[in-house]
Design brief:
Blueprint lengths: L5 H21 L6 E3 L6 E3 H18 L5 E4 H5 L11 E8 L1 H6 L5 E8 L2 E9 L4 E6 L4 E3 L2 E2 L12 E4 L7 H15 L5 E3 L4 H10 L4 E5 L3 H13 L3 E3 L12 E5 L2 H8 L12
Parallel strand pairs: 3-4, 10-11, 10-12
Antiparallel strand pairs: 1-2, 4-5, 5-6, 6-7, 7-8, 8-9, 12-14, 13-14
The chain binds D-MYO-inositol-1-phosphate and calcium ion (CA).
Length: 277
């Protein structure tokens, strides 16, 4: 019973690697870009093609009707984003699309699997760096098969914190995001960073390279796999108001420990975002 999902997990790793190879190859030729919710919310033919490849492979392996799928590009085309008790795949085929378009070398495939609304495992393939991050509930987190662990820093003044700007450029939101960053920077912390992919940011928390990553406005497909990886690496997940993490809320703080998470939460200027579901 304990290993019920092992073969499913192993298959997800294989699919993530294949998807990443496709992305790397696609990056070598001309990239066709269009936009989604705003002029800075980019999508490419590769995002759509890789999502089709991933979902197609999973359907071939597990049967057409047995599993549900929440994929970033299928949602963009109007499919409903509802997490039920059914086994459900939560997929971001290309996390870091802006990086991909610009040749900024952090692009990740993010694949998570939930059953009874609980995340069973997460796989993130940072394909330009060839780093395969994976974690199963209760079984630890790994990068290229080596165990990974969050940092043990408890003093925020000895931390590096990641946040991102998202894809909404409305003045009010941008000024809240920058005001939060300014307050955190001036605690002071050792530094602020951002890789341009939420999935990779969470892996950086999980390996101990940074102490925390938070964002308001991310989607469930950006963070589902990372949530398992951070937790299994010994980290914590919270809502930006300090309450329990809610995958569909589009708000998240991931950190190495509660002390760091709660210290950041004190500085976060919140703004409303519609939920994913
Ligand atoms: C984006 C990245 C980025 C985060 C945005 C996401 P995409 O995903 O994860 O780091 O700030 O909120 O939408 O569009 O590259 O798949
Ligand atoms: Ca994404």
């Amino acid at each position: 019973m304990g290993d019920e999902w092992q073969a499913t997990f192993d298959f997800a790793v294989t699919v993530a690697r294949k998807a990443g190879e496709e992305i790397r190859k696609a990056g070598e030729s001309e990239i066709k870009v269009s936009t989604k919710s705003s002029t800075v919310d980019l999508v490419t033919k590769t995002d759509e093609r890789v999502e089709k490849i991933i979902i197609g492979a999973l359907k071939d392996e597990f049967g057409e009707g047995n599993h549900r799928f929440i994929g970033e590009e299928s949602m963009a085309k109007g499919q409903p984003c509802i997490l039920t008790d059914q086994p459900t795949w939560i997929i971001d085929p290309v996390d870091g699309t802006t990086n991909f378009v610009h040749g900024f070398p952090f692009v990740a495939v993010s694949i998570a699997f939930a059953v009874n609304k609980e995340l069973e495992f997460g796989v993130i393939y940072s394909c330009m760096e060839d780093k395969m991050y994976k974690a199963r509930k209760g079984k630890g987190a790994f990068c290229n098969d080596e165990p990974i662990q969050v940092s043990d820093v408890k003093d925020i003044k000895k931390s590096i914190i990641i946040s991102e700007h998202g894809t909404d450029r409305s003045k009010d939101k941008v000024s809240k995001i920058f005001s939060t960053m300014k307050k955190i920077l001036c605690i002071p912390v050792h530094g602020l960073r951002g890789s341009g992919t939420a999935a990779t940011n969470m892996c950086l928390v999980a390996t101990g390279a940074v102490e925390a990553f938070f964002e308001i406005g991310i989607h469930c497909w950006d963070i589902a796999a990372g949530a398992v990886i951070v937790k299994e690496a010994g980290g914590v997940l919270m809502d930006v108001d300090g309450g329990p993490f809610d995958l569909m809320s589009r708000r998240m703080v991931s950190a190495n420990n509660e002390t760091i998470a709660e210290r950041i939460i004190k500085e976060i200027e919140r703004f409303p975002v519609p939920r994913d579901d």
